[in-house]
């Protein structure tokens, strides 16, 4: 297995408030360890950010995964950055999706750092 450290960024997201934008989709044959995820407010007032993990993975003898919120409507003050992970790790399987939403369109700048295992 090969491990690669990577990041994905968005200057502003989502294109439309209330319509979560896909930040990252795990590729077939890969497992991803999310190491860090930050939301920066680029708006002139406070906004609320949401991060969802969309998964339909089913593991042996387990219930099928569904969409879960990593954070929902977390306040991000004007000019501030919020670190979502705070030292935690999230494991994503092939086909899992990370989505971003904001109370105002195009007002969150996003960085996600991860290790991809192939």
Question: Mind explaining what this structure looks like?
Answer:
The chain is an all-beta fold and 118 residues long. It has one domain: Jelly Rolls (Sandwich), CATH 2.60.120. It is built from no helices and nine strands. The strands form two sheets. Strands 1, 3, 6, 7 and 9 form a five-stranded antiparallel β-sheet that branches. Strands 2-8-4-5 form a four-stranded antiparallel β-sheet, with no helix packed on it.
How would a textbook summarize the main sheet? 5 strands, antiparallel
Segments where pLDDT lies below 50 for 5+ residues? none
Strand content: over 45%
Q: What is the CATH class name?
A: Mainly Beta
Instruction: Please give the CATH architecture.
Output: Sandwich
Average pLDDT for all residues: 95
| Helix content, binned percent | under 10%
Shape: globular
